[in-house]
Amino acid sequence: MEKKSEPASKKEKIRKSALLLLSLSKEDAAKVLSKLDDSMIEEIVLEMAQIKTISKKEKKMFF
């Protein structure tokens, strides 16, 4: 069963979190993830797995 559509702001925050974690070293990403609850980790990791392209705007934010 698919979740109902979430507000854009939450989706945007999840994507930004995923992009941030992808920009970190494995060790630093693990430290950040260790501070989050399981449901938040699941949402972010799912987003990380779904990222196929990163926009120019997003690249400027993190890379």
Automatic annotation (TrEMBL):
InterPro entries linked: FliG_a-hlx (IPR011002), FliG_N (IPR028263)
UniProt-recorded name of the protein: Flagellar motor switch protein FliG N-terminal domain-containing protein
Protein origin, superkingdom: Bacteria
Species name: Leptospira interrogans serovar Zanoni str. LT2156
Domain Flagellar motor switch protein FliG N-terminal stretches: 13-60
Record lineage: Bacteria, Pseudomonadati, Spirochaetota, Spirochaetia, Leptospirales
Record SUPFAM superfamilies: FliG (SSF48029)
